[in-house]
Structures are given as structure tokens and as C-alpha cells.
Amino acid sequence: MSIRDQAFQGKPLSPFIIDAHTHLAPYYKNGWHQKPDFTTVESVIRVYDEMGVNCCVTAPHMIIDSMTTWANETAAAAAKDFPGRIYGYISVAPFEGMEVLRENLKRFGGNPAFVGLKFLGGYNGDYTEPVYRYATDFANETGCPILCHTWGNTPTLEVLRDMAETHPRLNILCAHQGGGSRELTFRAAPIVREVPNFHLEICGSLWNELGIEDIVEMVGEDRVIFGTDVINLDARFDFGRVAFSPLSDEAKEKIFAGNYLRLLEKSQMGSISR
């Protein structure tokens, strides 16, 4: 049975699926965008089981206020409680200073549950700041991916392009399809085509009129990564945009997990097993 037919029948999908962009743990600022089904890690896992999502990678919401140690400790605890279902990004923010970053990289970089870094530029400074530069060098040395927030061209796609071109061993995951809007996706697409370690992650695409098939046509099925932004957003939206799309099952399997797993193959940080 095709992936689309499974989805139409409301069955958990059969291919391996990784949600590469999440913010687990209840959001402590009055539940911004929080959905009733996603108020706890347990509730997210329950909905994942209904959809057939095997695992996720998370940077808990504390990163928004630069509380990176707390965020990383929360991710580590969730990964311990749900082994094989939850993995972590090491959250990075400039306002706590270089010493906190070094300690977090040392403390969590050797934890096999952590597979990459999370930058939240715009909320937390600019990607040209020294802390981000240091973390980018770390990612280049270890070959791990960095999930980089973009929204409304803050930070600019050009800054991310420079990061990718000057650090060829890391992989940039450009979140929200380049910044949330159709126009920014059009601007990001040539960078993806021209820079081999620059990829588009799709979460938050409800504000973007483009279908997943349109994005694949622009950048290729090997350069698109599935993510949902849960708990900010309902995970079922972007899940459905892939599952119900007219793409081939082979392309959907790449977007759902294959492309992300390929990026982790050369990383010296943690890995995800099917």
C-alpha cells in the first residue's frame, strides 16, 4: 500500500520517519501556539504513534530565552526517558557567553543522544557573533548538522550561505523553508542548488503557499528535510503535506528520514538507528 493510501486510511505510516525540528517540554510563556495534544512529551509520543513517526530531534523551548543549559538538560532527560524516540540538539545562544557554550559542548557533545546543534538567530542574536562562530567551527570539526532558525529573512540567507561555504564538513538545515514565506523559499532555492551542504527543512510551511512537490521541483528530493515545529505547531500539518503529496514513495521516504540519516553518517556526534 502506498504512503498516500496509508494516510488516507488513517493508518500509521510504514516508512521510517524522523521529525527533525521540535521544541519539546511545555512552553513556559503562557502556552504560545501550544496545542492540547502536545502539552507533554508523553502526549507528543502518543500522536507520533498515531502517525507512524519513529523519533524526533529536539531543542526545548528554553532556548528562546537563551537558557541553553536548561534546554540541553531537558533534552537529555527526555532522551533518557524515551530512548530511540527522542534525540537532542545542543542549544546554542550568545547571551550566556563563551564559557557556557564550551561547557555545554563538552558536557553534551559526547552524549550519543545528541546529533547536532540548534541556532535560534533573530531571537538570540546574529549568527556572526563569536559564540555562533565557535559553535560553527565545532560543527565543522565534528561534521554534525546545525538546524538554523530563519524567519522573515532574520537572519539573512546570505549569512547562512557563507557559513555553509566556509565550513564544508557541516550541514546547514535552513529551517522554515528559508524563512516562512514563498518569496524567501524562492531566494533559498538557488543556495540549496549551488551549495551542497545547505538543505531546506520544511516546518512552519502552513504560511507558505508552495506544496512540498513545488519545493522538490526547485531543489531536488535529496535536499528536503521533514520537521514539524511541535509543540509550537500541530505536527500533523507538515506531516500531511508530505504524506498526501503527489510525490513518489521513494521521494517521501527520503524527505521523512533518508536525507537526514545521510547527513548523520559522517558525523562524529550521535546517530539515529532505524
Describe this entry's structure for a reader.
This protein has 274 residues and is α/β, with parallel strands linked by helices. Helix content is 41%, strand content 13%. Helix 4 (98-108) links the parallel strand 3 and strand 4 (114-119). Helix 3 (68-81) packs parallel to helix 4. The radius of gyration is 17 Å and the shape is globular.
Based on Cα principal axes, name the global outline. globular
Name of the CATH class: Alpha Beta
Bin the strand percentage. 5-15%
CATH superfamily, by name, is Metal-dependent hydrolases
Helix content: 40-55%
Main sheet: strands, sense, barrel: 8 strands, parallel
The ordered string of helix (H) and strand (E) elements is HEHEHEHEHEHEHEHEHH
Name the strands of the widest sheet in spatial order.
1-2-3-4-5-6-7-8
Instruction: Give the overall average pLDDT.
Output: 91
Number of strands: 8
Regions with little confidence, pLDDT below 50 for 5+ residues: none
Radius of gyration: 17 Å
Total count of helical runs of at least 4 residues: 10
Beginning-to-end CA distance, first to last residue: 21 Å
CATH topology: TIM Barrel
Describe the structure concisely for a colleague.
By secondary structure, the chain is of the alpha/beta class.
Structure characteristics:
TIM Barrel; single chain; 13% strand; eight-stranded parallel sheet; 274 residues; alpha/beta
Helix and strand arrangement:
Layout: H1 3-8, E1 18-22, H2 41-51, E2 55-58, H3 68-81, E3 86-92, H4 98-108, E4 114-119, H5 130-142, E5 145-148, H6 157-166, E6 171-174, H7 182-194, E7 198-201, H8 212-219, E8 224-225, H9 235-243, H10 249-264
Parallel strand pairs: 1-2, 2-3, 3-4, 4-5, 5-6, 6-7, 7-8
